[in-house]
Amino acid sequence: MGKVTLRNLAAHKIRLVLTAVAVILGVAFVAGTLIFTDSMNKQFDDLFSRVGKNIAVDVRAKKVVGGDDGQSAQPVPASVLKALRGVDGVKDPQGNVNGYAAVVGRDGKIVGAGGQGPPQIGSNWNTDGSFDLKAGRAPRGPGEVIIDAGTAKKGRFSVGDTVGVVSSGAPQRMRIVGLIDTGNLMGASVTAFDTPTAQRLMLKPGYFSDIEMGSTGPSETQLRDRVAKVLPNGVEAVTGTKMRDENKSDVAQIMGFFRTFLLVFALISIFVGAFIIFNTFSMLVAQRTRELALLRAIGAARPQVTRAVIGEAVAVGFVGSTLGLAAGAGLAALLQAQMGDAGSGGLTFTATPVIWSYVVGIVVTVVSAYFPARRAAKVPPVAAMRDDVALPQRTLRIRVALGSLLTLAGAGLIAAGLAGNGGNPAVPVGAGAFAVFIGVAMLAPVISVPVVKVLGWPFARLMGAPGRLARQNALRNPRRTAATAAALMIGLALITTVNVLGATMRASVDEQVNSQFGADYLVQATGGDITADAAQRLKTVPGVESVSPTYEGTAKIAGQRGTYMSGDVAVIAKAARLKLVSGGTSIGADGLMVNESTAKDKGWHVGSTVPALFPDGRTEQLRVAGIFAKSDLIGSRIVAQQVYLRHTVRPSMDAVLVNAVKADAPTRKAIESALHAYPNLKVADQSSLKKDARKQVDGFVTFLSILLAMSVIIAAVGVVNTLALSVIERTREIGLLRAIGISRRQLRRMIRVESIVIAVFGAVLGMGIGVAFGAALQNALKSQGLSVLAVPYGTLGVYLVVAAVIGVLAALWPAWRAGRMDVLKAISTD
């Protein structure tokens, strides 16, 4: 039986290659994801092994509020550094200043990726060994700066050049006195100054972001305890190991999410590939029924026949996994290339992607082939004597019952997950979607009959005999038609869901901006701060009526951590078109406004007193002065400006609201001209806010659609598989058709139409499920801002056309092969 298995593999090369393609594509995504994330993790490990490697203890502000970041945490007074120098065991204590700083290029724009790209890091220059000077010397005064070599290369700068550096306020002209070798810093740019300059630009004179030190002998724990004794309230000491572990943990969490995100798409590809493999092996077994019956007739036992088919599956899975692993390395390299500088560290190969590639590829193939193998073993030996032998087909009643049950159960799981009744919603939603897909795939043979009749009717009317034959071929075996279409259904269902969600997000943002944004213009920083001098310039612009800065802070209000908005409350309320439920906007120096749902949940009313803990460690009693209706742009809290300023060492404007006498193009141009000296500031009105939001949503939709396109490609391979095997199965039938007068052109047209009908059926089924999923998501996320359901009918129409094109392309080779068959040989085929 082993020899028989090997000979079968050699005899059916084309069939098995087509099956292997589905395995290769699915495994490539899994391997590529694992190789890519392993490579990125290695880059981060290399980075953290250099940065802070000599730090024994780090002194920083206590995270009073919890989760304080660099903007909300309080800085450390410079007086602490003096105290640390007297602690026994402390070696070379150095204060760090960290923040935003960027180099302005010759074109007036910031060099390097801004916005959502790699960060623009500013710091003071310390000799802790984290980075080395590649050229030049350290900065020594307010007019000197050193930058990383990568930024210098991008901006075509060298030591001795004068550049603009933006951090706080307008760019300052500084001379480059040195270049830093940062190694692979994931694409981030680094700009460093002497300590006084860094404090002035990014923090506040007399303060540090943190203070680090080495040890002259004591262990990290011993030194930490000694240091803690001289620290004032609000400041803590942590070991260098803990600090590095925290940094690694933050990055690991991000990478873990990204890895899971990519693996979801890999599993989708495997899931789709499983349909193709199952369908292919089912057809292979059906076509070899007489051959298997002969094996049974000459003494092969049922287990031997089953093992023979499973053996073929193992061989296909092994070859597909091997090639998929190689393709995965290419995919990982492509993903790294898309990340630009952040992915310049090369690929890292570990045993994990190799093991999982073979496990996934072989297991999926064997499981998919198991049921056809069982059916093959049940072929009776007497079937070898019949010419018209065929595998018995079970009734569809069981499929309909199970399919209906799975579909309903899956819909229930999705509804429960989206309702957010505790736990991780991704688990029930994912399980529900899986159940729905399996359920609909089981129901598809029943659904296919009426749908294919409708889809095939125009071809039957317009193309005569080829159209009618194509329609009948698609209807002849509804199980096969459904299995082929199911793969395409899954891919297009998910892509449709993403597009419905994207259209809903765009429509919802437009509605929010129209109903909630009442200011004429909004000025925001793409990095760094909006300074008082920039706000002052806005006030001098002709036609500007009012300029009001807003701030964003972090606090624990009634024990719950969250962000709040602050500023001139009356202006904020007008700009956001707040609808007051009770109270007013005159909140005084200790007032608080909350939205209606928060007030209801907490049992607050106008006049209630609420405790608030701020990052500086102080608690203040805030008075609820107003309650407003839900606002997606404002959030849930507004705190008096005086409160924010009292608890912030370095106030930072989050945005500036600008109202004009007449909001027209000349006024906007005048505002942009006034801010020309601030390349990190951006002016937006209603139209540009919508445009920016659409751009982000479009990027999100495009990214997900590209990832999901892999499943559609695998589905297209499935259509090719089915048609190619169908042509082989119908060799004698095709010969008879040619003998009674059908031309090669008509034969090719018949196969193309059959392919189009199957592909369009899968698309219709998938898009229907996708629209239902998208509507369910919108309904569940309505309270999160998705207030408007939008279905992109134009895009769905394009997908329908694309499905038809996939059908045409998938039929090219099978149709060409059928047209070249020798008529006499085809008729004499068993």
**What general form does the structure show?**
elongated
- Counting DSSP H or I runs of 4 or more residues, the number of helices is 24
* Low-pLDDT sequence parts: 68-72
- Summed over residues and divided by their number, the pLDDT gives a mean of 83
The radius of gyration is 33 Å
Number of DSSP E strands: 24
What's the story with the biggest beta sheet? Answer: 8 strands, mixed
Structural class assignment: alpha+beta
Helix content: 55-70%
Q: What percentage of amino acids are in beta strands?
A: 15-25%
Keywords: Cell membrane, Membrane, Transmembrane, Transmembrane helix
Protein name: ABC transporter permease
Subcellular location: Cell membrane
Organism: Actinomadura violacea
Topology of helices and strands:
Blueprint: H1 2-11, H2 13-50, E1 57-61, E2 76-77, H3 79-84, E3 90-96, E4 98-100, E5 102-104, E6 120-124, E7 132-136, E8 144-148, H4 149-155, E9 162-166, E10 172-181, E11 189-193, H5 195-202, E12 207-208, E13 210-215, H6 220-228, E14 235-239, H7 240-287, H8 289-297, H9 302-338, H10 351-377, H11 396-419, H12 426-463, H13 465-476, H14 478-516, E15 521-525, H15 532-539, E16 544-557, E17 560-567, H16 569-575, E18 580-583, E19 591-595, H17 596-602, E20 609-613, E21 619-628, E22 637-640, H18 641-646, E23 653-660, H19 665-674, E24 681-684, H20 686-729, H21 731-739, H22 744-780, H23 793-819, H24 823-827
Parallel strand pairs: 6-11, 8-10, 17-22, 19-21
Antiparallel strand pairs: 1-13, 1-14, 2-12, 3-13, 4-6, 5-9, 7-10, 8-11, 9-10, 15-23, 15-24, 16-17, 16-20, 16-23, 18-21, 19-22, 20-21
Helix pairs in contact: 1-9, 2-7, 2-9, 2-10, 2-20, 7-10, 7-14, 7-20, 9-10, 11-12, 12-13, 12-14, 12-22, 13-22, 14-20, 14-22, 20-22, 20-23, 22-23
